Amino acid sequence: MPDKHSKQNNEFRKKYGPWAVVAGASEGLGAAFAEELARRGFDLLLVARRIELLQQLAGRLTAQYGIQVRSLPLDLSKPEASDQISQATSTLEIGLLVYNAAYSAVGAFFDHPLEDHLREVDTNIRTPLGLVNAFGKRMLAAGHGGIILMTSLSAFQGSAYISTDSATKAFNVVLAEGLWEEWRRSGVDVLACVAGAIRTPNYLASSPKRTGRISDVTLEPDVIVTEGLAALGHRPSVIPGAFNRLSSFIMRHLLSRQAAVQLMGNVLRGMYVHVEPK
Predict the structure, then answer these.
(1) Is the pLDDT of residue 1 over 90?
(2) Planar angle of CA 189, 190, 194, nearest 5 degrees
(3) What angle do CA 264, 174, 18 make, to 5 degrees?
(4) 4-273: which CATH number, 2.60.40.1120, 3.40.50.720, 3.40.50.2000, 3.90.480.10?
(5) pLDDT class for 197, splitting at 50, 70, 90?
(6) Domain boundaries along the sequence of the chain
């Protein structure tokens, strides 16, 4: 007799399966999403730039869980990325999209050329919007499906030293929340997963300085995955982690907008610029 968790996993796969696309899946949070979905019996299309990491992950998941896994090496900043993913899945029944990929040009605005900021827009807005358009149509026609857009707490206010990145994250929060209301009566669930710092290779590679402030609170990828998947179909957005939810409440409801912007500026200045504010 199947246990409660097996029944829940079967119901989840029936609603959002049988195939899932995980964009930005080579390591870190994307790989954690792929692992959990594989455990729940989903077949997977994994998308990222580094084919070696994708193939290693695909081979392990196939061997461990007995599922189908396809790898698609792709630069998600390219204008044609969403069309290529849509074409690669034209014969698959995609019931779930997890867009985890992101590009962030950390540092003072003019430390980066305009091309870097435009790459942020392409990776963080253009491609997920194209995928939402492509898979949303298919899910609505099927009468079921789910979309998770990973975004960030920096979306809730201007954030110095990651100004363009935080602006793109705000776009995804608003897009997901609007489509949650627009599509939920048609059987398609959309969720903005609004994360704080996550202990991933990319985050660690950015070399953030520990400041003894809220910036030092990092969550493991598994926490994000668990809370994100649990929230899908129940609300328009979720902030994983109790401390992050408390911090967000304080920033958005107890501080003035100006104070919140200044606080984030001081935090990020301490993390990445390593100079004291004037």
Answers:
(1) no
(2) 140
(3) 115
(4) 3.40.50.720
(5) confident
(6) 4-273
Instruction: Supply the pTM of this predicted model.
Output: 0.91
How far is the C-alpha of 53 from the C-alpha of 27, rounded, in Å? 7
Q: Rounded to an integer, what distance in angstroms lies between the CA atom of residue 106 and that of residue 163?
A: 9
Q: What is the DSSP letter of 275?
A: S
What are the angstrom distances between the C-alpha of 3 and each of 10, 14, 36, 118, 229? 11, 17, 18, 49, 19
How far apart are alpha carbons 172 and 264 in whole angstroms? Answer: 20
Which sign does the torsion angle of CA 142, 145, 149, 153 carry? positive
What is residue 180's predicted lDDT score, i.e. its pLDDT? 98
188 forms beta bridges with 145
Local confidence band at 256 (pLDDT 50, 70, 90 cut-offs): very high
- Which residues, including other chains, have CB under 8 Å from residue 212's CB and lie 6 or more apart? none
Q: What is the pLDDT of residue 199?
A: 67
**Side chain identity at 92, as an amino acid letter?**
L
- Percent of residues in the chain assigned helix, strand, coil, to nearest 5: 55, 15, 30
- 């104070």: which residue's tokens? 259
